[in-house]
Each structure stands twice: as C-alpha cells, then as structure tokens.
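Re: How this chain folds, sequence and tokenised backbone to follow

Filed under: protein folding, tokenised backbone structure, sequence and structure records.

Contents: The amino acid chain and a row of whole-number tokens, matched residue for residue.

Body of memo: The sequence and its backbone structure tokens, given next.
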Amino acid sequence: TKLESTQRLYLWQQQEASYAMLADFSGRPDHRDGKGSNDDDDEEAQDNILDPEIDQFEFTIASLVLLGKITSNDVRPILEKFKKLTGDNNKITAADVSGPNKKNKEFIEDFENSDEESTESDGNEAVSPQNKPSSGSNALAVGKKIAQAFREELLSSGGGVDQDKENTTVEDESALEYSKFRIPKNTYAIAIDDSKIQRKLLGKLLDVAGIATDRTTIVGDGYQEIMGFEDFVINFMENHTDNYVFLLVDENLDVVDENSNHVTISGSLCVENIRKRLPSQLERRMLALVRSANDSSSDISIYCTRAHGFLPKAPIKRDKVCETLAPLWVGRFPPSEFGETICFNSRSNEIKSVASEDVACTPYDIAQKLIDIESLFENNVHVTDIHMIHEEMHELKGDLLTMNSTISVMSIVGHINLILVAQAPETVVDRWHYVRDHANDVINLLQKNFRIPQNTYAIAIDDSKIQRKLMAKFFEFMSVPPEQVTIMGDGADEIKGFEDFVVGFVENHKNDYVFIIVDENLDVVDESSM
C-alpha cells in the first residue's frame, strides 16, 4: 500500500553506516554482543569484529529488499547463479571463461534456466549476499552481470519502467502531502529518557511538532520516574479518554535501584505492558514510538512488535519533523477511521514554536558529556562499576547520533560498541581514550567551522566610543551584516532606554537569533543634578 511504501522508504532513509547495518546488508554475523571472542584483550580477535563489509551491489540489492521493491525469492536465483559461476572462488576470473562471446552466451542461457534449478525459499527470509565479488575490475564485471540478470528477473516478474514511475510519483505525492501534516490539537505527549540531553531534545521535538508545552510531560530523571512510568501512562490515558496520546519511549532506561544495583529497563517492553493493560478503546487512541540508537533490522522488528513504530536517534531538520511523524501517525490513525481529526493544513496554518533550530544535540552538549565521563574514569569507576560506564556509553552513543554534524561519527560509535562488550578495565580505558580524543577532534573541528546563522541580529552597548568602534569590528569579523547590528551607549538616553529597546526588538524578531554584548559599567551623567 501507499502507507507501507512510505514507511519502508522512511526506514531506509534513516539507515546509517553501523555494524548492525553491515551485518544486515552483508549477511555476515554481527559480533557486537561479544560472541565472536571470549578474550577482550585479544586484539586480533577484536579486529575480526570489523570484518563485515558491503559494496555498492550488495547495498543496492539489500536496499531494494528493504524498500519492498523485490523479495528474497527474486534475488535467490541470481545469487545461486553467481555461486555456480564462481564455485569456491567467490569471483570470476579469466581462467573461468573460454572466450568473451561464449561466456556471455552461457551466462544468458544459464540464467534463463536458473528458475528451474533454484529451490524455493521463505519469502520473509532476509537477503544475505554471502558470496561477495572481489574489488577492482573483477567486481565491476561480476556486478554488471548480476545487474543484467537482475533487470531480466524484474522484467519477467512484471516490474517495469512504468511501475517505477508510478512508485516514484506516489512517493513524491506522499512527501508533498505529509509536509502539510499537523498533529491534532487534542493530543497530549508523554516522553521518557534517562539522558538529560535527550530529554531536552524530546521537549524541542514535541514543541516543533506543534504540541503545546502544557500538554507535554517528559520524565526519566531517576528511579521513581522510570519505575513508575507504566502506571503513570495508564492513569493518564484513563483520565484523557477523548484525547490522543503520543508516547515517545527510549529503549534503554538505566536506573539504580534501592539496593544500589544498576538495572536496565527496556522501554519497548514498558510499551508492550502498557498496551496490554489498557482497554482496547483507550489503547486505540495512543501512538507509541520507541527511540533508540540501536537500529538494526532485527532491533526495529522487535520495537515495532512491542510498540507502534520506531523513531531513530538522529538529528531532524526543523521543517522535516511533521513530515517524519506523518506516516507513523496516519498509519496508526488512518483517515478512513479518524478522518475528521487528521490535520493536513495549508501553509497559512503554520506551527508556532519557540524552538528555532533543528532537533539535534550541540557540540557543547557532547563536550560536557565527555567531561562527565572522564571524571568517572579518573575515579576508577571502570574498575569498581563497569555497568555505570556502559550506561554512560549508551547515552553518549545516542547523543552523538543526534548531534547536528557534517562530520561522520560512526567510527566513534563503533568503538563505543566495543566498549559495551568489553569487561577488562585496561581494554575499556584504551577504547575510551580513542572515543574521547576523536570526539573532541570532531567538536574542535565543528567549532572552527562555526558560522553565525544568517538570521542573527547583534545588539551591543558601551559608554566608550572606542569600545563601540571595536564592537562594530567584532561583529563584522563574525560576519553579521552591518544592517543587522545596533550599537548603543552614546549618551544617557540610549543607556537608560537600553532595556526597553532590547525587549521590544526581541518581541519583533521571534524567529531570529539575537546576539547581545553588554558592558558591565555604564557611566551616565544625570542631567537633573546639574
């Protein structure tokens, strides 16, 4: 259906380069749980964790399956044909052919008969291209052959150019339609996360989505809020039977219980328990999404079984928030059943939000997090309480993935995953040093490349003529246009009227940034005393 196609497209667009993606797309084992080695100090064994890799052909085929364009049954004959051509070599070389013409002829003839030779497979089985072609010219040659066979298979099963155009048109129309989506006004939001940074982002996300602050509840600060979450949601739903409730739940909720033991609560299991406890008529008015930095296909499948959907921990552009939530909302509350409450408004009905930037962590959030974690290592917490270190690493991973950055952090995330499976203190420290140093490098580079947004206005005040001139030079250096700069302080009237001027200015520039620099000692001459 149109909705399923849009949801598949959204999940595919959210894919990031990660170990989980490598395992899913390549068909090779994911060793993040540490099963690949029992010795954390065995560097050679740990290097094997990085073995999975994919090329553009594997990525293309796996993506088409994920998008629902083809099934594993479509790909199976192609992979079996490749295995037949390559034998145990996993590649085709000059030694395998008797001449270019004969090779091409045999390839086409063999492929035409491949359907009869192939065995049936489960339609739900994940694509696992085990026999990866070698790199270089051989990989390109084999890739072209696979692509040729792949096209013929699609054509023979009825998939053509017209269908591709139709699918593209549907996706374009969906994007245009969802850009006008607005969450109904009678919606309350409840969110939970054990990370202070993520709770701040959740508040910003819900604000940008158009849910009023007085209709938003964000919890997760401590044992009581996390352990009492299920009962809180149940009671809230029972007291708001005529409203919608939008639930955003972090997957890994780390708490310290009354006996000082560290416990990790599964957010998706909390959602499952809530759904089971609610009467069907109340549960029907709730949309529950799981947020997590763990976004492999298997993880997402679990989340979607327990909850109604998945929202990755990733930065979201302000103007894409509603468009991101729309397919999830409409999928849960289809217009055929809730048509009168689903909002697809025109541009004239824009969301009014106090948040003026994208929903993302800042480098300063990450920098402070690194300082906090470093203090734990300095106090030898990695020796006395490795679980606490793992909790902090889970939070840091989510924060990094939601940081608005043009620089990839996936290598850092990869080393965090290695810390999460490590137990030996020395190994944990070594890997933490890599994470800390490389994260700081990213932060420093982002700060060096920082540019003040174009919608920034500058206001400064100083009673010194020389200092006012320096302020003008400073703002020029910061690339703030002269017409967006106001410098005051020349006389008693400007100094005394400064507060009222700033208040009025900010009220008239609600969608802009205002950068204010104020001199501490402003000397004025009181004319009444003269």
